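Do me a favour: review this protein, sequence plus structure tokens, and tell me how the chain folds. Record follows.
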Amino acid sequence: MSDKHCFGSHVSVAGGLDRGVARAVELGCECLQVFTKNANAWKVAPLTDAAITAWQVAFQKSGLKHPIAHASYLINLASPDPVLWEKSIEALVIEWQRCEVLQIEGLVLHPGAFTTSDEATGLCRVVQAIIRVAESVSPKHCRLMLENTAGQGTCLGHSIKQIGEIIDGVTQQAAAYSGNLAVCIDTCHAFAAGYAIHTAGGFHDFVNEIKDVLPAGAVRAIHLNDSKKPLGSRVDRHEHIGRGELGLEAFRLLLADPLLGPLPGYLETEKGVDPQSERDWDEINLGVLRSLVEEMA
């Protein structure tokens, strides 16, 4: 395995955050993504000292690198509804603070959906919300990672340009926090949003857009997902690596790319066991990615 590549997965933390570390190790991960709370609920119990210590001890012993978390799916920083917007800001403050305490590197966030307003208004709402949250958190360890989206409905972030506008907005209005922002690129979302990253030309154009629009070093993580739906479908449905519409070529291109290839990559593919081989799907997908790296050697 090349030391230039780092692969892992989103793992369950059922039973405690430290159990997520154990699961990642059992799967053969080199990095991991977790939820630090229930992603589909607003309420959250405070982290106990025992839970924090158990996570820290387990992680330090594990040999894993680049721990990141994914924020709640309920958060919508683009919402025109003042009640939901304030609730989303409060929830993100709590999640970012939890990541700070756990010394997690990044908190992945979908920018949000503008619903009954418009794109420009929605982007402005996201910028203002991020500044509010950053002011409350004063982060030292964890970056907020904006994730590109498939673009379903009124969801923002389906273009690199929109991600860039959010980062630029925060930089212009609160430059002190610009270094606390980063980007997580999702392969399935990019493809569903219309980026033809399964072809050499399309992938080249995608990377060039990242270089042209985003600050140098902004992209810090990759979500490695194939797509059940076709190019430009605007539908977010993840598939196992090489078994979807993206196919293996997209991942060959990505892993060989000097900008994106070396970044830590996290599977978000369906959990469970392959009925044919009776092997864990995460183990299968990690194996496929590592075989692609071996092909390149």
Q: What stands out?
A: The two ends are 9 Å apart (CA to CA). The chain has nine helices and ten strands.
